[in-house]
Amino acid sequence: MKKTEKALTLLRALEKIYPTAHCALNYQNPWQLLVATILSAQCTDKRVNIVTETLFKKFPGPEQMAAATQDQVEELIRSTGFFRNKAKNLIRCAEQLLIHHQGQVPADIDALVALNGVGRKTANVVLGNAYQIPGMVVDTHVKRLAKRFGWTKSDSPEQIESELSRLLPEEEWTQCSHTLIAHGRACCKAPTPYCSSCPIVDLCPRKGVDKSR
After folding, report:
1. To which protein family does this belong (predicted)?
2. Is 198 annotated as a binding residue?
3. Which of 38, 127, 202, 213 has its CA 20 to 30 A from that of 66?
């Protein structure tokens, strides 16, 4: 069986286990998803959702965010961590959207990564979930599982994104990320995976690594 066929077989098995895997961030439009994803760096989605409930009432769009002061934004996002840098990036990002994109979040990865606080992970989250444009999101869970599954040997998120994008058909990219994240949170944990209770252990190259759980 070819590498892509093996990867898809494993992915299909995971999709049966996590049929409702989806973006866990709450949002109603591309702007809200962009902000929430920026805030999610080094922070749980649960905490971000609590914070954005208030944040989006105060700053519903880039116009309001661009007019905010650093102190105003910091106060609302403090509990997400790295709040000073995140506040600075959110305000500047909003300004850039108004100046260069008529206040709209662009549906283009190069335009997205040119914004303050936006890397390829954030850009792919926005593309895949707000615009239904395939994007391979490589977060800590995807990176860990891709290495354990033998899909990559790299530690570089950019290289892993490139390799997974070549390995899997484009239409699989967005949902693959959601599915791997769900399995990473539930079972294939760091530093030790729960192999003994893993429902797809027979498909995994690392099967049996952990016999204790």
Report:
1. Belongs to the Nth/MutY family.
2. yes
3. 127
